Amino acid sequence: MSLLNIENLSNTVADKPILKGLSLTLDAGEIHAIMGPNGAGKSTLAYTLGGRPGYEVTGGSVTFDGQDLLDMEPHERAAAGLFLGFQYPVEIPGVSNLQFLRESLNSQRKAKGLDPLSGGEFIRLAKEKAGLLGLDMEMLKRPVNVGFSGGEKKRNEMVQMGILDPRLAILDETDSGLDIDALRVVGEGINTIMRKPDRAVLLITHYQRLLDYVKPDFVHVLAGGRIVKSGGPDLALELEREGYAEVVGAGVAA
Amino acid sequence: MNALVLPTRRQEDWRYSDMEAVGGVWPLPAPAVIAVAAGEEASHLLLQDAAEGAVAVHDYEISVAAGGRCTFHLLNIGGRLGRVTFRVRLGRGAHFGLYGATIGGGDQTLEIVTSVTHEEPEGTSEQIVRSILGQKAVGNYLGRIEVARDAQKTDAVQSIKAMLVDRTATANAKPELEIYADDVKCAHGCAVGELDRQALFYMASRGMEPQAARSLLLQAFVAGVFDDIADEAERARFEDAALAKLEALVRQGDME
């Protein structure tokens, strides 16, 4: 059984159709990259799978680990093992990262019928995952993303992913705003946390460069609200070299 | 003004109040008097958590003589009507600080009414009030600052923010400045908002239950108001009471 099965998914955002019959299947153990021109619907796909209010599904189905994903509330999707890495992580003044993560993790544990982690257990876990991404523990005591640089926000997303330990990560332009060093750290973080036989990753990116660190098994081109082409890792290189218009046809890329 | 005649909403200080509730307790007792002598420091607290349906009116008359300081921490959460008023007069270089939180639900009317008069030069005042209102609650802040003709170098700050948990709740914030001196600083800010939807989705995307997410955001909104209560046990009492009221508010909102 595939981990994620998207069939013929259509949606609207503010009454405007964005996804138009998108189909995609991910198996456990796989890393898929979705590339595509601006406005193709890449972020819309991520938000729709995450259940963001205002992203209204008008057709099709999504099955996650055998369950109807679209039938679940956003927090239930997370508890089921879905992680959404934000392109623009949200700042939450007055709530510390540790508080935010502990509350999230314990909500997920409760949904799974597990006891909450004690303060000490949680701090040990947070320390370990922050260390993996080179994020200072002091930063985790600060309010969520407030005053963080673009790179720190993205690293913080990966620390959250490490702590929450999802089965499927949908990472929306996690590489944007990263310098070369941060890109390597984030790439290694994704590999360490998610490159496992029972996990899968959907990487949404504009550029090939993240894919130098996180090698995808499959590459898809999203244009006009649909997957218009799929292939192996070479497809990303081809896109980088020749552009979307050349590879998928000017009419589709527009 | 005759203190025995029941006021009406046409009087500014009572504009948004629950007059029917006031009528039941009229006439009011004389205000509590706090007099801070020159150079002295005083800190006062009020946790207004009157029983459901009760009418609680607390009036304070505060005078702070030259170089004195008075700080007041207030948590206003109880009763059908919870009204706390301050009439403050400041001498030369005197300071008044009000740090307040109002948390209301049901059909509560909770209000804070202040009138701070800077009578002499170099006085300072700071008022920070955070209100969280749900269901059909009404939260009012009326804050009048008067700077006398001689009171140069006055520095007065009002920061008033309200958060509406439900669209049916009401927040009224009305600063009023009357300044007769020309070399003064009076900064006032008022904002009424709702919980940040983006933050709520972000928290949900990490698995946080909606009730926990709302409660955390509301706690963050009032966090800090009671930080300066020196007595640790008192601070904990205020924070615990605020948290319990918030959680009751979030739970009630969920059941509707």
Count every beta strand of chain B, where a strand is a DSSP E run of 2 or more residues. 12
Structural class by sheet pairing and helices of chain B: alpha/beta
Query: Biggest sheet of chain B, in brief?
Result: 6 strands, parallel
Percent of residues in β-strands of chain A = 25-35%
The side-by-side strand order for the widest beta sheet of chain A comes to 6-9-10-3-11-12
Outline of chain A: globular
- The helix content of chain B is 10-25%
- How many DSSP helices of chain B? 4
Along the chain, the helix and strand elements of chain B come as HEEEEEEEEEEEEHHH
Binned strand content of chain B: 35-45%
What do you see in this structure?
The complex is a heterodimer of chains A (254) and B (256). Chain A has nine helices and twelve strands. With 254 residues, chain A is an alpha/beta fold. In chain A, the strands form three sheets. A six-stranded mixed sheet of chain A has the order 6-9-10-3-11-12, with helices on both faces. A four-stranded antiparallel sheet of chain A has the order 2-1-4-5. The longest helix of chain A has 15 residues, at 97-111. The model of chain A has no long low-confidence stretch (mean pLDDT 93). Chain B is globular and about 55 Å long. By secondary structure, chain B is α/β, with parallel strands linked by helices. In chain B, the strands form two sheets. A six-stranded parallel sheet of chain B has the order 1-3-5-7-9-11, with helices on one face. A six-stranded parallel sheet of chain B has the order 2-4-6-8-10-12, covered by helices on one side. Helix content of chain B is 21%, strand content 43%. Chain B is built from four helices and twelve strands. The model of chain B has no long low-confidence stretch (mean pLDDT 94). Chain B has helices spanning 19-25, 197-205, 210-222, 232-255, and strands at residues 32-36, 41-48, 55-64, 69-76, 81-90, 95-104, 109-118, 124-133, 138-147, 155-164, 170-179, 185-194. Classes of the chains: A alpha/beta (254), B alpha/beta (256). At the A-B interface, helix 2, strand 7 and helix 3 of A face helix 2 and helix 3 of B.
